Amino acid sequence: MAKNLEISYLLDFYGDMLTEKQRNAVELYYNDDLSLSEIAQAVDISRQGVRDTVKRAEQTLLELEEKLGLAKRFSDMKRELSEIIDAAKMIEDQCVNIPHAEEIGRYTGIIIRTAERLSAE
After folding, report:
1. pTM summary value
2. Kindly report the CA angle at 37 between 51 and 48, in degrees rounded to 5?
3. Domain that holds residue 78
4. pLDDT recorded at residue 2
């Protein structure tokens, strides 16, 4: 079973929507990089049982993302905030020797700090 890193990302968004058993199996498989056999031994079920649990959880996570799109929206927002930061820095750099440069610098600073704070959340 090839590991899809998107599942680990989706787990951050929708993990609470899975059963405890599913969430635990997916976390062990993707985040802790355990094999199906290692997980089966740790939770005392068959390897096939672990595989089925992981597959059902993966399907649930993918369906949730398809319906809700939270992970994509978050990724898009981070990219767009980065563009805002870059544009504000360019404005800041270009305004050094023009009238009201100090005021423009103050406002671009506010934009940059706010966008960076939102991007880090």
Report:
1. 0.76
2. 30
3. 72-120
4. 57
